Amino acid sequence: MSKKLGADFALLFVAAIWGATFVTVKNALADITPFYFNALRFSLAALILGIISWRKFPRLNKSLVVSGSLIGFFLFLGYSFQTIGLQYTSASNAGFITGLSVVLVPFFSIFFSKKAPSWEATIGALMAAVGLGLLSLDDTLHINTGDFLVLLCAVSFALHIIFVGRYSPIHDTFLLVTIQVAAVAVLSFFGAFFYEPPLPALTGQVWMALLITAILATVFAFLVQNWMQKFTTPTRTAIILSMEPVFGALFAFILLGEILTTRDWTGSILVFLGMIFAEITFKTHRQKNQRYTENDQLILGQKNVPY
Predict the structure, then answer these.
(1) What is the pLDDT of residue 295?
(2) Domain count, the chain
(3) Which distant-in-sequence residues (6+ apart) come within 8 Å of 170 by Cβ?
(4) Mean pLDDT highest for which of 73-87, 224-238, 281-295?
(5) Residue 284 burial (CB < 10 Å; 0-12/13-18/19+)?
């Protein structure tokens, strides 16, 4: 098996892990409150990441801590809205709506890059918006509370992606991820202390969910994603990871018995296609801009040209 094919399968496995997380978390929330669940999940993940990267701790500085904490804040909002929203909506809905974040990224980037999104990204966003409406609106045109909370989760994850793109090139990856995860753990404990009753005794189902989400969906999945993208293209990565909501619906159907109506399937397909359309074109335009920059450097004599 080639490295590229192996990377594609590994990324597909990551998408499956993230998709299955919706079912795992939804089951666990029957026995534990959302903030406590996230606090324990990310504390365990931070501990594991700390053990992995402890030799790099002398490199910590104020800039890295501030950057990681800011990124962690948006990650905290994302997982908090997602976990709370799962109490009021289906796992399949949560999976697809959360995936809308990849459509929002190009538009939020306007405030940082001062560049309007491409027409392809606009079409992709409109497709996803129509699909989201079919998926989330009932016959009375009311949005379910859980759907709205998960939509806020998608916004938070989009902002998280933007700030990761801003700070990851200038900081050590392991340390930045460790601080992010630790920040989510601390903020979740504060949320639990002020808004939730005391932590009850943890059931076996909760422990299983904590292990799966901390080890597989947090530590393992992010490390695999960052490593395997060295062997495949950004476009292929976008397509593969966009399978996450599809896996979410599939696991919800298999494990929870959730039934998707024709309207649900239509909305889900539109969201899925919109995510792929916007994400691929966003990546492609960024690659083209990078090539144009390199060509300009060659023309200006800023790069050595082999003869």
Answers:
(1) 46
(2) 1
(3) 67
(4) 73-87
(5) middle
**Cβ contacts of 216 within 8 Å, gap of 6 or more:** 17
Residues 6+ apart with CB under 8 A from 12: 240, 243
Assess if residue 124 is contained within a domain: yes
Whether residue 152 is predicted with pLDDT greater than 90 in this model: the reply is: yes
Give the domain extent around 255: 3-299
What is the structure's pLDDT at 256?
73
- Show the tokens assigned to 173: 């990856």
- Is the overall model pTM greater than 0.85, yes or no? no
Q: Is residue 74 part of a domain?
A: yes
pLDDT at 292: 43
CA gap 246, 108 in Å, rounded: 25
For 84, half-sphere exposure in the C-beta direction (CA atoms, 13 angstrom radius) is: 17
Band (pLDDT 50/70/90 cuts) for residue 208 is very high
Q: 298 φ, ψ to 5°?
A: -65, -40
Hey, which of 120-134, 140-154, 201-215 has the most confident mean pLDDT? 201-215
